Structure formats: structure tokens, C-alpha cells
Amino acid sequence: MIRIGSIGAGNRGRIVKLANQPDEGSVLVGICDRDAQVRDEYQQEFGSELLVCDDYRELLDRAELDAVFITTPDYLHEEHAVAALERGLAVYLEKPMAITIQGCDRILDTAQRYGGKLYVGHNMRFFPVMQKIKEIIDEGTIGQVQAVWCRHFVDYGGDAYFKDWHSEQRYSTGLLLQKGAHDIDMIHWFGGGYTRRVVGMGKLSVYNQVKDRRADHEQSSVAFNKDNWPPLTQKGLSPLIDVEDHSMMLMQLDNGVQASYTQCHYTPDGQRNYTIIGTQGRIENYGDHSSDEHEAQIHLWTKRIASQLNQHQTITIPTREGSHGGADPEIINDFLRFVRTGHNDGATPNDARMSVAAGVLATQSIRQHNQPFDVKPRVHTVPERQVTEYPKIAIP
Ligand SMILES: NC(=O)c1ccc[n+]([C@@H]2O[C@H](COP(=O)([O-])OP(=O)(O)OC[C@H]3O[C@@H](n4cnc5c(N)ncnc54)[C@H](O)[C@@H]3O)[C@@H](O)[C@H]2O)c1
């Protein structure tokens, strides 16, 4: 039985409930959250058997664990992941791996030194739309990939990111990293390489103009509401906002593929729109996942078209059960498989590190007169030979 704990069990942290599969051999045994309401929720749902506490050290010391989910805000990932890995636990760590490159490398070194299994929650690898795009690329339908562009319209920036910790550099570094870590990883996946050179431009353009701010001591009031429109009428934004609300980055991958990612936090519509251009065609998606309200589509052009824009193949992606278009149950099962067997289909820890590295340096470029930066691979400080045996977990 895989005994699972959770650090930061509210909001995104509720994905840990998907891993509680006692009949399949994994069980939630403890959670830690600083929010009393979250602790009560879990105690009621899982009963008095569940260890519930507010300090991660207590969870790691008192609960007998094989694996832990770390779903706290980004600036805590490094501290929490290092502590869990030092105990040799298998770790599901939410993206982005950390908010600095050094933080990622410390996590990777710790995983290597203590033999803990590290898995980073890049759930977009399991979005059916993204998997289909990858399949089309891998089949060679558009020839050799030359360019990957992503436009990301975030319609809820003012409902959420500019109301809580996300709005401050010291907690998130910036939204190009925070939100973009997913997409930079997709760009690397579709492009078949890692970013080698990056340049960024962007600024805080709209939310700095909003005068209605909460006081420092007040709780943030994140609330997704389509009536919060236009962006300048948002209420209760963070007292300090020092991250960009519009950013753009250009990337050259190590295999010569060129890429761009643009992100805006005050659009009326929400959409992630990728274009992949190869030597024999082009792919573009509309919608990143299907739901009851809308069906995502992938459009594919593999020959020159005359004037009619609709001369292309359209692939409609069916709706799947589960959040993020069915990706969340898939990634949790992939993690459990990783804990049991050491094999998985998701992003590798180095993939996660390289998306952070590109996002951090693009943000640095924005803030340092748009100068380009080279992205360096991780320097291995821990000899490979020090990797210890993974703790054995009985397969049910
Ligand atoms: N992969 C995805 O689709 C996806 C979606 C949303 C969020 N995320 C990631 O999940 C993480 C959490 O995001 P969120 O929006 O749920 O954040 P959040 O601010 O809501 O925090 C999550 C939980 O952690 C708890 N927490 C905060 N500080 C803590 C501490 N010191 N000790 C114990 N518990 C603490 C909070 O009370 C909350 O219950 C982030 O890293 C974010 O990037 C990923």
C-alpha cells in the first residue's frame, strides 16, 4: 500500500483525493494545511484516522509515508520538496518546480542524493488536445517542426493572480514563469528541445492602474466571476503588484527550433492557442480542453490553400471525465505508476527544471532592458553513483 501525505491540501491540493484509491493500493494517511477550514474538510471527509496538522514538519515526522503531494504556493516548493526528499519520500511537486533556477537545482540534487522519486505535476502533458498535437507531430504529418508559437489569453488574471501571492515577485518571480511554466514545457515537448537562448519583453500595464486594493492584513478574495469586467473595475487587488500583466518571450531551442510565448491577463476570453509550423504543414488548436460547454478542436493544414480559409482538416477532441479535460486523473495515475515502478509518461524533473530556467531568464530579460540570456543546463554537483536504491513499495 502506498501511504500518501499532502502539504497544502486546499485548492489545487485537492488533487491528492484522486490518489486515495485504497482498493488499488494507495491511501491518504495525512495532510497539512495552514488553513483551518481545509483541515476540517479533510478530517470530516476522511475521519479521525487521518493525521491532520498545520506544520509540514509534523506531517513528515509523525505520519508513516511513502509519498507526499506538495501543492503549496510556488515560493514554498523548494523548502517543502527538499524536506520530503531528504526523508527519501516519493514526491509529487506542483509546477513550477521552484521560483529560481538555483531552487530547482537544489531540489534535483536532493532527489539524487537521497534517492527520492521526484515527479513534477506538468499536467498539460496529459491534456488530450496536447497529446493529439504531439501525436500529429510525431507521425511526421507536418514534416520537421521549425516553429512553435503560443498565445495565452488569461481572462481571470484580475479575479485571481492579481489578488494574492501570485502578484509579487518575491512569491512567484513573475507570471511568465508561474503560468508560463506549463506552456514553455509544451513548447519544449512539441519542439523536441530545450530553450538555449531567450529574450523577453512585457510590462505591468493595466492592474497597476486599479486603485481598489485590499489592505495588507485582509485575506485575499479570489473569486472567478465573468461580471468582473472591464479589468479596470476589479476590486480588492493585492496591495503590492510588481509582476507583469502582459509578457512576451522569444526562444531559440537547442535543436534550432524557434518559438514564442505571449501571455495577457486581462482579455475578455480565456484561451491557449498553439501553432506549430513544420516543413510540410501547420497545426493550430482552438481550446485547450473539451468540456460540456465547448469542444476543443485541432486544425491541420498540409497543403496550400486558395482563398477559402476552411480548407483544412479539423479534429474534434472528445470530452473526458475529470478536471483539466481529464488530465488530472491521468497524471495522478501516472505518478502512482512512477512510485510503484519508476516509470512514467509525464515530464521528467529535468524537463521541469528547463521550463523554469527559460521562464526565469525571460523574466530577467524583461526587467533588464530586454537583453537576451543563454539558458545553461544543470551542473551536476552530486555524483550519479550516489543515487541510492528507491525505497521499495509493495505492489498490491
Ligand atoms: N497544474 C495545474 O493545473 C495547477 C493549477 C493550479 C495551481 N497549480 C499549482 O499548485 C500550487 C498551489 O496553487 P494554489 O492556487 O492552490 O495555491 P493556494 O494559495 O490556494 O495554496 C494551496 C494550499 O496551500 C496551503 N498553504 C499555503 N501555505 C502553506 C504552508 N506554509 N503550509 C501548509 N499549507 C500551506 C493553503 O492554505 C492552500 O490550502 C501552485 O504551485 C500552483 O502553481 C497548478
By secondary-structure content and strand pairing, the structural class works out as alpha/beta
CATH superfamily of the largest domain: Dihydrodipicolinate Reductase, domain 2
- Tell me the quaternary state: single chain
Low-confidence stretches: 384-396
Mean pLDDT: 94
* CATH architecture identity of the largest domain: 2-Layer Sandwich
Order of helices and strands: EHEHEHEHEHEHEHHHEEEEEEEHHE
How many angstroms does the end-to-end distance come to?
7 Å
Bound molecules: nicotinamide-adenine-dinucleotide
Name of the CATH class of the largest domain: Alpha Beta
Briefly note the CATH topology name of the largest domain: Dihydrodipicolinate Reductase, domain 2
The radius of gyration over CA amounts to 21 Å
Name the beta content range.
15-25%
Tell how many strands the DSSP assignment holds: 15
Give helix % range. Answer: 25-40%
Strand order of the largest sheet: 14-13-12-11-7-10-9-8-15
Number of domains: 2
The 3D shape can be described as globular
The helix count comes to 11
What does the model show?
The chain has 396 residues and is α/β, with parallel strands linked by helices. The protein has 2 domains: 2-122 and 327-347 and 377-386, Rossmann fold, CATH 3.40.50; 125-316, Dihydrodipicolinate Reductase, domain 2 (2-Layer Sandwich), CATH 3.30.360.10. It is 28% helix and 22% strand. The protein has helices at 16-19, 36-46, 56-62, 77-86, 101-114, 128-138, 169-172, 175-178, 180-191, 327-341, 349-367; strands at residues 2-7, 26-32, 51-53, 67-70, 90-94, 118-121, 145-153, 195-203, 246-253, 258-264, 271-278, 281-286, 297-301, 313-316, 373-374. It has a 9-stranded mixed sheet with strand order 14-13-12-11-7-10-9-8-15, with helices on one face. The protein has a 6-stranded parallel sheet with strand order 3-2-1-4-5-6, sandwiched between helices. The termini are close together. 45% of the residues are buried.
